[in-house]
């Protein structure tokens, strides 16, 4: 007969070498053998995944096709240090955010003639969106007719008329132009949010978290030209109404909201960033402020007029 304790002992000795102490896993139950009242705990090693080629950037993402071309096996791409952001795309293992999805597809999955669109395009430019859309775990991609947009889990594709497929490049990635993003999102945003988005395209102030570049992106005339091309599309009426309410020089999204609240309450519309000269003090401008920890906090508590001194 086989001496089972000896066989267990031999097998344990073969697996007793631990390459990385942090990878030690203590097995329980069936992993213990009794020797005269004593229990021996077997150790097994969780191997560290083999390093990937340097040209495969796990933080931004890489395609499985690119990995295969670099000699990476399918088994290696299923290792615990990688996760799939989209079909055929791998990134370093972590809790993925909507921006992670957008970036991984933009860097590893965006094909020729494809552009980030809708919410993904707005997130890429750092433009203001309601929280529900900011947190949407979907990457939006547009193509011009007659091309076919990509499909799949966490992907939403759009096929646009060539006249409406106006693009811009930002941070090395092709997106729909900010004005086109406004026209596309007007079908998903209410009037207030559409005005906030339009004001963000016409300002150079920095109180727009993540917005880039810090310069006006479009003039009102350019936005109206895009609105004319989108006539008859979902949100076209909302877009036209928002452009009538949009003003140049808004300092933050909440300043636009406060201006609209004052206007819709029946008061005269305040002038944005009105400048004046005060004898004995110098130059100043009237600032619409409100009581809150930050200008982009969800709550708009109180509107109070202030004077911002500039010299």
Question: Can you put this structure into words, describing what you see?
Answer:
By secondary structure, this protein is of the alpha+beta class. The chain folds into three domains: 4-45, no CATH class; 113-264, no CATH class; 275-309, no CATH class. The chain is built from eleven helices and 15 strands. It has helices spanning 4-14, 64-69, 74-77, 98-108, 118-125, 131-134, 178-185, 191-200, 220-229, 236-245, 253-264; strands at 24-26, 32-35, 38-41, 43-45, 62-63, 82-86, 89-92, 114-116, 139-144, 155-160, 167-170, 173-176, 275-278, 282-290, 303-309. The strands form six sheets. The protein has a three-stranded antiparallel beta sheet. The chain has a three-stranded mixed beta sheet with strand order 8-9-10. Helix 5 (118-125) crosses helix 7 and helix 8 (191-200) packs across helix 10.
- For the terminal residues, how far apart are their CA atoms? 97 Å
Structural class call reads: alpha+beta
> For the report, how would you describe the main beta sheet?
3 strands, antiparallel
Please tell me how large the radius of gyration is.
28 Å
Strand order of the largest sheet: 5-7-6
Number of helices: 11
If you average the pLDDT, what whole number results? 82
Number of E-type strands:
15
Give the percentage of residues in beta strands: 15-25%
Succession of helices and strands: HEEEEEHHEEHEHHEEEEHHHHHEEE
Contiguous uncertain segments of 5+ residues: 17-35, 293-311
Principal-axis shape equals elongated
State the helical fraction.
25-40%
Number of domains: 3
């Amino acid at each position: 007969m086989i001496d089972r304790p000896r066989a267990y002992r031999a097998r344990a000795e073969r697996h007793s070498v631990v390459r990385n102490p942090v990878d030690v896993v203590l097995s329980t139950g069936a992993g213990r053998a009794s020797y005269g009242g004593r229990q021996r705990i077997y150790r097994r090693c969780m191997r560290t995944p083999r390093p990937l080629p340097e040209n495969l950037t796990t933080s931004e993402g890489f395609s499985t096709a690119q990995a295969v071309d670099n000699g990476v096996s399918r088994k290696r791409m299923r290792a615990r240090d990688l996760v799939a952001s989209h079909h055929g795309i791998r990134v370093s293992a972590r809790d993925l955010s909507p921006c992670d999805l957008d970036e991984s597809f933009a860097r590893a999955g965006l094909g020729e003639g494809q552009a980030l669109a809708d919410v993904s395009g707005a997130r890429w430019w750092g433009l203001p969106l309601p929280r529900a859309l900011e947190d949407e775990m979907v990457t939006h991609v547009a193509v011009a007719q007659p091309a076919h947009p990509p499909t799949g889990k966490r992907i939403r594709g759009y096929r646009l008329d060539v006249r409406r497929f106006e693009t811009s490049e930002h941070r090395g990635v092709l997106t729909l132009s900010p004005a086109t993003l406004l026209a596309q999102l007007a079908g998903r945003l209410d009037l207030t949010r559409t005005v906030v988005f339009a004001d963000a395209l016409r300002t150079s102030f920095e109180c727009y978290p993540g917005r880039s570049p810090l310069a006006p992106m479009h003039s009102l005339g350019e936005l109206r030209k895009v609105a004319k091309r989108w006539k008859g599309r979902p949100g076209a009426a909302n877009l036209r109404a928002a452009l009538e309410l949009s003003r140049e020089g808004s300092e933050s999204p909440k300043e636009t909201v406060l201006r609209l609240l004052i206007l819709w309450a029946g008061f005269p519309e305040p002038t944005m960033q009105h400048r004046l000269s005060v004898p004995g003090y110098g130059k100043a401008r009237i600032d619409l402020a409100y009581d809150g920890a930050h200008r982009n906090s969800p709550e708009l508590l109180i509107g109070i007029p202030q004077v911002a001194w500039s010299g």
